Every structure is written in C-alpha cells, then in structure tokens.
C-alpha cells in the first residue's frame, strides 16, 4: 500500500499546496508520527497527478520562480475517504535504535550505559519541552472546539506525542534507577 499517497491526498484536501509546502509539513507537523523525504514526495505527486487524483496549476512566486500548486480532484477525495474509512491492521513496532542498544546493555560497562541513558533522557526531555511549547501555541492560536477542524487532528496527534515522550522519559528514569543499583 502506498500510504504516502494518502498522506499527501489528506494534506492537499485541507488546502492546495506546492511540493515544497508538503515537504515542510512532513518535516514539521507530521514528523511526530510520519516521515517522508523530499525525494519520495515529488515522484508520488507525479503518480497522483497521472492517476487524476490531483491536478495542478503553475504559479509564479517572487519574480520568476514557477511552482506547481496542487489541488485534490473529486476522484482524489473519494479515494481519500475510502482509505480513511478502512480498518487497517496494527502496524509493526517502529524501530528504535536506543532500545535496541539497551537490549544489549550486558555488553556495555555501567558508566557508559548510564551516560547513554542520561543522554537519552536529555534528548527526550528536550523533545517533550518542544512538543509542550507547540501545544501551548496551538491552544493559544487555533480553535480546536470542532471535531471537523483540521486543528483538532493536530491537537490529538500532538497530545499523543506528548504522552509518548512522557512515558519514554519515565521508562528511561526507571532504567537509570535500576542501573544505578549496580554502581
């Protein structure tokens, strides 16, 4: 299944976008749960245009820069709605390099292991702080009072990311406490 196809259709369904705008959204808003590289997005836009799920018009930005502004077709909207209504199986557990290294902790001396976990704690604490700042900005500037608002989707995904980071931090703290018993 080309899941990227549906992510792009969903974004363009919200508002017309350029390839650059889509890439930017993947690097910012969607990065907490989905990732796509620049090199994946443009070929997918071409496929979606060839399948008549999207159309585009060439617009001028600045004085000379031409960009394609994509809009979703009725066929694209129906395709997106069909996918949204589908009940998908549970995805495999995402890869986590930090946890994989932790699995092999018997191969690391305690001081190095503690440094690794402290570093992980710092990184996840920084990410949590960033997510909480994003949430505060969202709540200050956007109306999330309607389920039909794209902002409500932003809110629930951001809230889930905050919960994920809090849980991850608690796990790391618990590991540090357990490892510290051996020093």
Question: What's the helix and strand layout?
Answer:
Blueprint: H1 3-14, E1 17-18, H2 19-27, H3 38-50, E2 54-61, E3 65-72, H4 74-85, H5 97-103, H6 110-141, H7 150-180
Antiparallel strand pairs: 1-3, 2-3
Helix pairs in contact: 1-3, 1-4, 2-3, 6-7
Classify the beta-strand content into a percent band: 5-15%
Q: How would a crystallographer describe the biggest sheet?
A: 3 strands, antiparallel
Order of helices and strands: HEHHEEHHHH
What's the arrangement of strands in the largest beta sheet? 1-3-2
Q: Calculate Rg over CA atoms.
A: 21 Å
Helix fraction by DSSP (H/I, runs of at least 4):
55-70%
Helix and strand composition category: mainly alpha
- For the termini, the CA-CA separation is 49 Å
Number of H/I helices: 7
Poorly predicted runs are none
Q: What is the strand tally?
A: 3
Bulk shape: elongated
Number of domains: 2
**pLDDT averaged over residues:** 91
Quick structural summary:
The protein is mainly alpha-helical and 183 residues long. The chain has helices at 3-14, 19-27, 38-50, 74-85, 97-103, 110-141, 150-180; strands at residues 17-18, 54-61, 65-72. The protein has two domains: 3-85, Arc Repressor Mutant, subunit A; 97-180.
Describe this entry's structure for a reader:
There is one protein chain. With 183 residues, the chain is mostly helical. It folds into two domains: 83 residues, Arc Repressor Mutant, subunit A (Orthogonal Bundle); 84 residues. Helices cover 63% and strands 10% of the residues. It is built from seven helices and three strands; from the N terminus they run H-E-H-H-E-E-H-H-H-H. It has a three-stranded antiparallel β-sheet. Helix 1 packs across helix 4. The longest helix is centred in the last third of the chain and has 32 residues. The model has no long low-confidence stretch (mean pLDDT 91).
């Amino acid at each position: 299944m080309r899941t990227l196809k549906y992510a792009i259709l969903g974004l363009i369904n919200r508002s017309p976008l350029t390839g650059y705008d889509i890439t930017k959204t993947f690097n910012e808003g969607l990065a907490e749960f989905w990732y796509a590289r620049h090199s994946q997005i443009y070929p997918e836009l071409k496929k979606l245009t060839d399948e008549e799920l999207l159309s585009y018009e060439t617009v001028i930005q600045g004085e000379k820069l031409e960009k394609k502004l994509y809009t979703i077709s009725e066929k694209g909207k129906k395709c997106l709605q069909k996918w949204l209504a589908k009940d998908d199986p549970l995805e495999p557990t995402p890869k986590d390099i930090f946890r994989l290294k932790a699995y092999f902790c018997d191969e690391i001396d305690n001081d190095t292991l503690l440094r690794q976990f402290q570093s992980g704690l710092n990184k996840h604490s920084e990410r949590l702080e960033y997510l909480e700042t994003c949430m505060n900005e969202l709540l200050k500037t956007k109306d999330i009072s309607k389920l039909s608002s794209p902002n409500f989707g932003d809110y629930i995904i951001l809230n889930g990311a905050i919960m994920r980071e809090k849980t991850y931090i608690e796990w790391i703290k618990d590991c540090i406490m357990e490892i510290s018993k051996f020093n």
